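FAQ: What does the model actually see?

It sees only this:
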Amino acid sequence: MRLAAAPRPPRRTRAVLAVLALVPLLTTLGACSRADRGPSADAASDRGPAAELRLGYFPNVTHASALIGVDKEFFARELGSTKLTTQTFNAGPEEVSALLGGSLDAGFIGSGPAINAFAKSEGEAVRLVAGATSGGAQLVVKPGITAPEQLRGRVVATPQLGNTQDVALKKWLADKGLAIGDGPDKVRVTNADNPRTLEAFRGGEVDAAWLPEPWSSRLVLEAGAQVLVDERDLWEGGQFPTTVLIVRTQFLREHPKTVEALLRGQLAATEWAAGNQAEARAVVNKQLEKLTGKALSQPVLDRAFTNIQLTTDPLARTFPRLAKDGVTAGVTRTAPELAGFADLRPLNTVLAAAGKPGADAAGLQK
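And it is asked to produce this:
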């Protein structure tokens, strides 16, 4: 039997019904869009533990928690089945290239290059997940140089163009009204690997250097340099992030538990160092000898360690100033917007599990 067709509603009614039919679809799509921007997106992209974690750091005392974490297998123990592969660098810009190029997953690095990596990728490529070291950088000079203006016509070295100490030096020179360039009234800034700077200072080619530990201590104790500026004196409470830990954003989203494992290893290394200071110094020295071919003398090692504080706190409150310092130093044209730079959720999960207070993102975490 053939059924009669239902009468069609008026045209205006049909239009209203069509719009109403779209509402559930639009609501669903809107929810998906919001999920892409929120924590649920991270959960959706979680692929479980990574097969491998590629970690970068420097053969410097300011990277002591990394050196200890590797040597004492704190990282390996927490990572479990995830293979740990390590690579060392002389300065931050090299490590930034490796992170942005995808050949590293995480890196202990200076605060300046960490900001640059975030800015270069338009806030996409990396996230600040922890601190590592506060303090441990000084401007050391030849005997007889006792005031900033005496650096005019002199050569001052930093580890690499745009690295943390390079920015700190140029910001300080700008604050003192000292121009950078050639000529008797300007300060000539040069960049060199830390071992080369030590040789150049001894040979009279360099008059001063803004360096991280242990290199500032080596110039003082092995080459007769004197301290003109301890960078701690330029910061409230003497705290500033010399070394932090950043992770590729994609790796963090796909392997959040692996990042937590890395942070547990770092926390274990930091706490072990605090409770075993003499052995911690020996472990760091052993790693430095392995990586550079030469161990530090005990006086250099002891002096370097007195100038640093190991901490998982990234001191996020300092980063807006650090971003502006890059502009003042002439390294960047504009200070990058840092909202979203930090993701301290993994760190604070680890700290909470250990019964410790969380770290403050200071507005850097979306």
